[in-house]
Amino acid sequence: MSVRQRRRVLVAALISDAVFPLAITGATAVVPEVTAQVPGPGVLGPWIVLAYNGLFAAALLLAGAIADRSARTRFFAAGNIVVASTGILSALAPDLVSLVALRTLAGVGAAMCAAGGSSMVLAVYPPEERRRVYGYAGAVLGSSLALGPVVAQALMAVGGWPLVFVVPGSVAALAAVATLGLPGLRGPEPSEDFDRAGAVLFGLTVAAVVTAFGLGFGAGVPWWAPSGLILAAAVSATALIRAERRASKPVIPMDLLRIPAYRAYALATGAFMGMLVVGLTVLPRLGSLRSVGPGEAAVMLALLTAPSTVLPLLAARLARRLARQLVTCALFACTATAAVLQVTGDRAALFAAAGVIGLSLGLTEGVPDGQALRYVPAQRGGAGAALFSTARMSLETVTLAAATGVMAALGPASGMAVAGAVCLVAALVVRQAVPSRDA
Q1: What is the 3-state secondary structure (H, E, C) of the chain?
Q2: pLDDT digit string (tens) for 109-132?
Q3: What does the pLDDT read at residue 219?
């Protein structure tokens, strides 16, 4: 491909990347308003988010495998068209049942976008250029994540909850348009032995686990709902193990999971995201206990999220020689910050904690992704990126669910202790598993 075409591939992938955080944070923000205005049982409200997240995580690995076996550009464009269509239709949903169904389909489309985009980028950019590319991706994802809640609130103020679904869909449509005229990027002819049973069972297992932890065991949630999902996940996982043992070419890329650095960086990125989502929940609650006003709370959240908008490109430069040190130091810093909040919760400590965590996240945004995917052959980029993203989303959800449960018993600060413990484990694993030559 020409340099211009490669840049168009990257631009299309980055436009699509900007959709995911807004699609999640925006939907979370409008749940109360949608539940109050749209006909249907109120118990379906949380599923506007859970259906999207669960199917996104569940479909990633299957989407990655299909992306590697098809014309990557076309597959990516199709995913964005699904996201665009469901976004527009969600704004017109007549009832909550229809809206949840559309959000479920949107989650599948998002998985196609994520897997197809990574597969495209890995197909056209050699390993020595991927750190820079993932620096750009980190900047886009970080900016979208930081601005997502603000943009969602602004859209609700301008056009109500329907606009929160229409705008991400419109951005996804732009990503699809950006691929017009690009080569299909079809990889080498793959084997016909596609493990469909394993792909479906893996998706069912991940969907059940993510949804169960997303529901939790809190007030208003019948005990049988998460319990039934966990049981279903156990049954599906058992069947998955049997299917993978029989398959000549298992859908789960076990050879990648056997690479210590790949596993370590997947754990690290999940720990960072877990610290972020817990911090976004806990720090405002701790601030309210210390009479932190709305303006100060906004500053605190800006300290937590703003570095992810400006530091990823610097992180990509530092990662050329200091990737392992950068990731481990950031994880240790998050752990130490969580420990400090267990002994003091005064206002200065809260602002300092937000700043330290924000810097740690900003200076590592996209770094674990780029480092891990160095080990993935271009022809298997979709599967490798999908498995990595599945691990990240699953660990993020489990960390938040565990923190929520602990907070209910021990108070808000204990939630940071849970996230800090996950970061500590990840730091030790990265330090042990990543070769020194990658440092």
Answers
A1: CCHHHHHHHHHHHHHHHCHHHHHHHHHHHHHHHHHHHCCCCHHHCCHHHHHHHHHHHHHHHHHHHHHHCCEHHHHHHHHHHHHHHHHHHHHCCCCHHHHHHHHHHHHHHHHHHHHHHHHHHHHHCCHHHHHHHHHHHHHHHHHHHHHHHHHHHHHHHHHCHHHHHHHHHHHHHHHHHHCCCCCCCECCCCCCCCCHHHHHHHHHHHHHHHHHHHHCCCCCCCCHHHHHHHHHHHHHHHHHHHHHHHCCCCCCCHHHHCCHHHHHHHHHHHHHHHHHHHHHHHHHHHHHHCCCCHHHHHHHHHHHHCHHHHCHHHHHHHHHHHHHHHHHHHHHHHHHHHHHHHHCCCHHHHHHHHHHHHHHHHCCCCHHHHHHHHHCCHHHHHHHHHHHHHHHHHHHHHHHHHHHHHHHHHCHHHHHHHHHHHHHHHHHHHHHHCCHHHC
A2: 999 998 899 888 888 888 777 777
A3: 57
Residue 260: count other Cβ atoms within 10 Å of its Cβ: 15
Amino acid at 199: A
Distance, CA of 139 to CA of 119 (rounded, Å):
19
Q: How many whole angstroms separate alpha carbon 413 and alpha carbon 286?
A: 7
Tens-place pLDDT, residues 26-82: 787 788 888 889 998 887 887 888 788 788 888 888 888 788 788 899 999 999 999
262 and 372 in contact (C-beta within 8 Å)?
yes
Token pair in block for residue 45? 């409200």
Give pLDDT, residue 188. 59
Q: Is the dihedral of CA 414, 286, 35, 273 positive or negative?
A: negative
Q: Which letter, b or e, does each residue of 110-139 get, where b requires 16 or more Cβ atoms within 10 Å of its Cβ? A: bbbbbbbbbbbbbbbbeeeebbbbbbbbbb
**What does the alpha-carbon distance between residue 377 and residue 33 come to, in Å, rounded to a whole number?**
45
The pLDDT assigned to 353 comes to 93
Could you tell me if 312 and 139 are in contact, meaning their C-beta atoms sit under 8 angstroms apart? Answer: yes
Integer Cα distance of 133 and 127 in angstroms: 10
The structure tokens listed for 248 are 């000549």
Please list the residues that pair with 186 across neighbouring strands.
Answer: 71
For residue 134, which amino acid is it? Y
pLDDT value of residue 330: 96
> Low-confidence residues of the chain, pLDDT below 70?
146, 187-194, 214-221, 378-382, 437-439
Beta bridge partners of 71: 186
